[in-house]
Each structure stands twice: as structure tokens, then as C-alpha cells.
Amino acid sequence: MERNYLKKQLTLRLVIYCAAAILLYGAAAQYHSSAPSLIKRTDEPVNVLLLSNPPIFIAYNPKFKKAVVNNLPSSKKALTAEEILQKAKINEDKVITVDLRPEKRIEFWDGFKSNLQSWRVKPYIIFSYFYSYIKLKWKGKTDLSFGDFILISAELSTLKTSDFAVQNPLVDKIIKGKKQKETPIRITTDIKPNQTAQGPLVIEVFNASGRNGLAGEVTKFLRDLNNRGVINIDVINYASYPELLEKTKILDNTARLLEIQQTAYQLGLESREIYSQRDKNAISDVKIILGKDFVLPKRSK
Prior knowledge:
Elements: H1 2-28, H2 37-40, E1 46-53, E2 56-61, E3 66-71, H3 81-88, E4 95-104, H4 105-118, H5 125-138, H6 146-156, E5 164-167, E6 201-207, H7 214-227, E7 233-240, E8 249-252, H8 257-266, E9 274-276, E10 286-290
Parallel strand pairs: 1-4, 3-5, 5-9, 6-7, 6-10, 8-9
Antiparallel strand pairs: 1-2, 2-3, 8-10
Helix pairs in contact: 1-6
């Protein structure tokens, strides 16, 4: 009996010492890390280039705990990290690179979102996450140091999918009669939420679910929340969408990310990323496109 007790105590101490060592290593890493702003909470973004097919560039703002996910354009020739950053005019010394090839972007991103939502109820995912990092590091496919890995892992554990604003590639217009140029690589790194906007969040609701009357029901639901003072919004339009969608989408036009996130939470959409359009000619701040998967909450949260 006493031997089993001592064994448990030794095991517990070993786990505590290992955890403390990892935390200390992560804290010490801020002095030579490429991600010190995670601790200092500055506006300087933490930049990560993921070489999937096609690649992804993520810029994370530690102060506001928001990230912009730049889906980069595909190219006939697989570009190196140096070529991508050179085309985007970004200093490669300030970018963490992870080579995920031959994994496809859509598969990686779907898996990332799933793990981000479910790791709390499926903690064994963490071991798979650590294993993936060790394998990439062993093969020389990432310059992410162990200290940075600990810092970023701790930060990810506090985020939700709605903290990520997705920016799709900006394609130049094709001029008739002229040869089309190679799609330029434009990367957005400034993800500061719009703090100066005044008035209610202006919303449009579109029904792409195929269920009659859903956009009207959601509009009524949102206006009720506004009347009760739960959120400050103005639904100016609701209509049918020209096509059916499997999944609900949130399209951001003006970077009022914090307010959009609050609205998404009320609609049960906190597990959805926000697609950033930044359309200056849009009549609303956000468009909510209801897909077949949407279920109207029974009551506000």
C-alpha cells in the first residue's frame, strides 16, 4: 500500500516538474523568439507561412487576439517560402515557416478548425498535435523553435474559430485583348479590429438553405436581441440567396470583428471563421448567408 502511494507521488512530481520545465522554456523563449509579442501583447503581428497546396499566410494580432488567414493564390510552379515572401514584400526573418506539402489547403484548414473546436472534449488530439510538430521538425520542414511552439500552442488554446478572418486571393481584373499577368501575391497583416465605427452593426441576411422563410425568422430573432439591448445591430435587408450552400458563411465588409463575433455567438455560429471582404462599396457591415446546416437558436445566450 505504502509502495503504491510513493509510486503515485513520484509520478505526480515528475509530471509537475516536466510541466514546469516546459513552461519555463516557453517563457525564456521570449528573449530570442520570433513570437515575443504573444507575451508582450503588442500590435506587432506573429506571422506564419504554411506551405500547403495552395499556401496560407496567417498574421495574428496578440493585442486583440484576432488573426487574418490569407489564402494565397495557386500557381503552376510550386513556390518556395523565400519566393512567396519576396513577391509579397515581407521580411522573411519575421515569418515562421511550416512546410505541409503535399497536404491540400482545404483539408488542412478543415482539420485545424475541427481540432480547435474539439480538443477540450477530446484531449488526446494534443498528443497528435505534438507528434506532428516533432515529425516536421525532424524532417527539417519547419523553422518553428520548441519555445515558439509552446507559446503558440498556449495561445491557440484560448482561441475560437471565429477569431480567424479569412481573406481569399485578390485577383486582378483581366483586360480584354491583353495577356493575363500572373496573379500577384497580396498579404494582409493588419488585423486591428475597427474601433472607430459608430452606430449599430449593419447586417444583411440571405437564405441559402432551401428552407422557406428562414431569413425572415433570423431577422426577427436578431431584431428582438437588439430591442432587448443584447447586441447593437440593424438588419436592413433579408432575402434569398441565388444558390444553395451546405454551410453558413459570415462575410465581413468593414472589420468590425468584435461586434461580428458577438452576433455570431448569439446565432450559435461561434465555431465559424469570418470571411473578410473589406468591400468599401458594401451597404452593410456584415452579410450572414444561411446554409443548410443552420439551426436557429431557441433562445438568446
